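Submission sheet (multi-component)
Chains listed below:
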Amino acid sequence: MNIKSQLRIQEMAFMLVGVVLFFSLVGLIGMGILYSGIYKEANRLADQKTFGAMVALADSPEFSCVSSKSNCIDGDKAISLINKTNYVKFWPFTSLRIITRYSAFNKGYNQMIKCSIANYPNCDLITIYDKKVAGEIASSNFIAFCRKEYQDFGNLQGRSYDKCEIGMIVAGTEYKNPKSKT
Amino acid sequence: MRIKKRYANSGYLIPIYSGNKKGIEMGFNWLFAIVAGGFILFLAIYAAGRLVNSGSIVGNTLNAKNFVNILETWEAGLAAGVKPPELQFRTDTNLYFGCSAELELPFGKQTVSASDIMFNDRTSEIGYSVAIRSKYIFTENQLRGKRFYPFSVGFFMPFHIADLIIFSDRDYCFYDAPAQLQNDLQQLQLNNVLFPNKTTACEGVRVCFSNNAECDIVVSTSGKYVIKEDVKMYYYGNLIYAAIFSSPEIYECNVKRLMNKLNQLGPIYLDKIEIIKRKNCESNVAPKLNQLITGAETLSSSADLAILAKVSEDIDSINEGADPGCKLYKNQEKNEY
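Outcome: structure written.
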């Protein structure tokens, strides 16, 4: 094989490498454009899922009131969910909280009185669970927060009734960010 | 045979046919270009194929995910029944359902995946399955079509345990259905559930409430069971709809998941009994409720539902007799089927 032929083969090989590289780059750019919106789409779906599930949550068996009122949370049931870790995977939220009364709406979580079985119902915030994920966005919805109350008329007379206040349910969603390592 | 060798400007000449002197000669460059070009073409076609496949997997996974997102918003609550809008896909679609009561305890989970139906009845690559944890979907193992018919009813034992979401893709013909059941279903205005007379023609799955050899599904309201695909599924309350519309595997799995849910809800009510005691509300439900929780824990199949039904009705009677301001939950009207 003469030198000229060897050169031509080398030229051809370089050209082929170039062609392959060119098409690979075109392919990569195409894939980049095609999947550029995938994080946005995933976040939109996650947000939609959280909001849909949160709106329906008040009517779920774990929270629903004794009366058949819609969008009403039975505080006497909700308070017992505090230590039930089984529900962490059940609902599609990264955190789930209930603000039990209107007067606490302007406070930060740190300023609110945390609820426990012992201090309930004299408290502001029932934290059902918090996975403590980074990049969490919270969605909220107003609800009627009801609990049993006893009215004493004196002389051993009294009656139990449902006392309801405006409360809020706050659910978290993890926002995926392509730049973060998580 | 003579091997022809000659150097030329184009490099080697390789004889393709050397039988006569006028044999076709091909330069090395050409041969190299054909082989390399073929390889590049093959790579390009393979990559395009993979891209189309992964595109359809992504599309089908998104379809399944959207489907699950829509389900999340369905909560019938204490309503007797809810008919959400019919679900319509852009193209004919296969939906595949799976269920496990043992995975991801204590609740178990269901999965759904989708694939488009293309021309020639071929299906595209099935998308990744999407998990459903907080919903109870009663359906056949596989649904096929563009339009699906959902409805949702509450399941109470004796308090609200969950909503049963029932999905179907075909018409159902109900023969000799009890008046209350017919009334309940007609109120939901389901387009795929028909109540024909014996003489009226009805094309669809035949559901009979009296023994008939020509039936696909037989329901015995006295025995509280449904026979489908030669399998007997026992029901309690609104589970009658679930048994009619779903495959035996999904039905039995979801009954176990519902009992898992009862096991989680029971302690919440036990805690509630203690909390409302502070407000002068005494409830005598606790011993029976504990019995119900134990029964639900040991349930092995729907055949055990009858035992739990008795305990559930006892709890219901106690709760009904409680002070109106101290009821644990709202008692439900009993259906006759």
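Remark: Chain A touches chain B through 55 residues (CB under 8 Å).
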